[in-house]
Amino acid sequence: MTDQVRVRFAPSPTGYLHVGGLRTALYNYLFAKHHGGKFVLRIEDTDQARKVEGAIENLISTLEWAGIRYDEGPNREGAHGPYIQSERLAIYREHADRLVERGKAYLCFCTPERLEEVRQHQIKAKLNPAYDRHCRDLPLDEAERRQAQGERHVIRMKVPITGDMRFHDLIRGDVTISYDVLDDQVLVKSDGFPTYHLAVVVDDHLMEISHIIRGEEWLPSVPKHILLFQYFGWDVPKLAHLPLLLNPDRSKLSKRQGDVAVEDYRTKGYLKEAIVNFIALLGWNPGDEREIFTLDELIKEFSLERVGKAGAVFNVEKLNWLNFEHLRKKPDAEVLVMLKEHLDRSAVSKRFEDEYLLNVIRAMRERVTFVKDFVEKSPYFFRSPGEYESDVVKKRWQQETPARIRKLAEEFSRLRNPQKEDYEAALHRTAESLKINQRDLVHPVRLAVSGMGAGPGLYDILFILGKEETIRRMNSAIERLI
RNA sequence: GGCCCUAUCGUCUAAGGGUUUAGGACGUGGCCCUCUCAAGGCCAAAAUACGGGUUCGAAUCCCGUUAGGGCUACCA
Fold it and tell me: What structural domains does chain A harbor?
C-alpha cells in the first residue's frame, strides 16, 4: 500500500445523483485534491433488482457537470479497474472462497422461508431479529457436497459470538460496537453477486483506498468491514463518517419534501458554483468568516478536521443567496453565453444583438438570482409590455399624465443618438417647463415603457430600449392607459 | 424494541474550559442612500435542549434525561 491519498465515491446507480451523494463525492474529491491524491469513482451495482437503465451515465455526467472530475473510474480506466462492480464478480467469488477455506465464512443453505420463520419467532419472543447461525457449523465436506449438487446457497461471514469492536473514526472519534448485535452477514448472494459488505472491503483494498469517507448511515456496519479486512489480513483504511443531510423537519433528506436530485437544481437554473459552494458548507466550515468559495479555494481550505458531527438541514434560501453571489461574480461575457442559451430554450423568439444583451446584463446584474430572472424580472427588454401592473397604474398614472408624456415624447424625438444623460437632460427640461417634479415624469415613463413599477434606473432602460422603441412605447401607453 | 450517532439563534455555523454582554452568514424587521426595485451601508430581534456533577471557572469535560436521526435485508 502506498502513502498516497486515494479516496473513492461509490454510489449505487439507482437513478439520479442525490445532493447528499454529491456532497459525499465533493468531500472525497476535496480531500483527495487537497492532499495531492486520487479520487476514484466506483459503481456499486451489485443489486440486480435495483438496476436502473442509464443511471451510470447520468451519475457521471452530473458529477462532471459539477466539476468533480474523477481520476479513475468508468471510462477513465486506471490501474485498479474495472470500476463497475458487476464486472468484478470473479474477484469477489475468489475472495469469498478464500474466506471459506480459512474458516472465516461458510456456506448457508437456509431458504428465505426458513429465515423469515426464524425472524418471526424472534420478533414474537422479543429478541433482536438476526440469523440464527444454523449453517455456521456445517462440516465443510457436507457443504461442498450440497454445493456440488447445485443446491442454492449464500456465503456468510463468521462474526465472533462475543466481544466487541472498537474503532476510530476521523470525525466521530472512538466508537465501540458489540459483536452480539451483529449477525453473520451474507457476503455472496444466491445469485452469485456479492453484497455491499464484501464488495466494498475487497475493492477498497484492491483499489488501495487510504481513506473511506462516506455517509453516517454506514457507521453501524463498520465492525463487519473491519472484521473482513482482518480476515483477509489487510490494513484497514482510515474512516470518516459524514453527518447526514436533512429535510426541514430534520429527517433524512428525501424526496417528498423538495428536490433531492442534483439535476433538479440544475434544471431550475442553479449554478454549479453555487451548489458546490453551498453543499461544501453543509457540514464543513473554513474556521473563519468567509462563505463564498470557488472549487479551487475549497480544495485549498478543506480539511476533515473541520467537518462537523451533526446533520445539516438543506436550506434553499441560502443556496439562492449563493447563486446570486456567484452569478454576480461572473464576467459579462460569460453571463451573455448563459443568457443566450436560456433565450434559445425559452419562448422568446426575437433575436437580440450581443451588445443589447450585454446592456441588459449590466443593468440587471444586481437584481437577478438566476439567469432566467433577466427575462422574468425584466421582460420589457425582450418584448413590449403586454399589460401594465394595475397597482402601479393606479399610483403613477394620473389624469394629467398623458399630456405630460406626450410632451416628453416630443422632447425625446428631437434627440439625436441620445445617451443616458441626454434622456435625463430632456426629462429634466420637460419637468421644468411643466413646472412639475422629475419624479412625476420618471414614474409614468417607467410604467409606460416597462409596464412595471420596479427595475433599473429609468435612463438605463431608455438607453437600452433606444429612442424609437421608447417613444413607440410611450405613445402606446397613452393610447392604452386612460 | 435493540444498537450506534447527534444536540449553539428559524436555518448553516464560530467559540478546541477563562480573550464571551456567545461571533458571522442566510432569512426576517427598521433606518440611510434613492426616480422605483435592487445592490450597498447601519441597526435590531433571535441560540448554548433539560438536570446533575468535575472545576476557582463549563457552550466546551463526565453522567443521566429528553429529543432527533441512522442502522437493525440474499438494499446500498
Answer: 90-188 (3.90.800.10), 330-383 (1.10.8), 384-482 (1.10.10.350)
